Amino acid sequence: MGFFLHVEDFGAACARMVSAGVQFLTAPRTEAYGRVAVFADIAGNKWDLIGPAS
Prior knowledge:
By secondary structure, the chain is of the alpha+beta class. It has one helix at 10-19; strands at residues 3-6, 23-24, 29-31, 34-40, 46-51.
């Protein structure tokens, strides 16, 4: 990934993005550093949405 979007509330950010039509390429998952899901922007760039672990 070339881009990272760090958020404080991963669940809320993910829900807002889905309701706005953002296309997620992976399901949210938990890693050692927190929660992460990959999404694409309107230009097709891949981003990691990253938030703290629950």
